[in-house]
Design a protein that fits this description.
157 residues; mainly alpha; 7 helices; 70% helix
């Protein structure tokens, strides 16, 4: 049933999403938090928009990949604000989390421009690298990770 549902949904999605959908299907995204967030994000896109609208929203595979990475990072930031363990006022927390998210995005864009001669990394690696960078920035700003993710037996989130 899962494979039938997946194939039915994927056939309706625009080609700009192929890289991310293939990574989800082949289970090459090793971080369960990232995997679940992307499934939820793409599922909501499929529910809310038709194929033509999605094609217009994301003009290229790179644009969709960037949006998926942003969705994962934003989801972590939102969960930190809602469930994180903080000793600051809520306004300060939201401010610093926003600073962390913007810093991670700037760093990701700079890294990509610095490494353009190398070509693009495969999506799962780029996602893992970008998400780890966000976690590093958050832990650097707060001195700890306000929302710890569960680690499995292999040491993965």
């Amino acid at each position: 049933m899962e494979s039938y549902f997946y194939n039915a949904v994927v056939q309706q999605m625009p080609h700009c999403m192929d890289t991310v959908l293939a990574a989800l299907k082949n289970r090459t995204i090793r971080c369960s938090f990232c995997n679940e967030t992307l499934l939820d994000y793409i599922g909501n896109l499929a529910d809310d928009f038709c194929t033509m609208h999605l094609s217009a929203m994301f003009e290229s595979k790179e644009a969709f990949i960037e949006k998926c990475i942003e969705a994962v990072c934003s989801h972590y930031i939102i969960l930190c604000g809602a469930k994180g363990n903080f000793e600051l006022a809520l306004g300060d927390i939201n401010y610093y989390l926003g600073v962390c998210e913007k810093a991670a995005k700037r760093r990701r864009i700079k890294r990509r421009s610095d490494e353009i001669y190398l070509g693009n990394l495969p999506f799962p690696e780029e996602l893992s690298r970008s998400f780890s960078e966000l976690l590093f920035i958050v832990s650097d700003v707060f001195g700890y990770l306000p929302l710890k993710l569960q680690v499995d037996d292999n040491g993965l989130f």
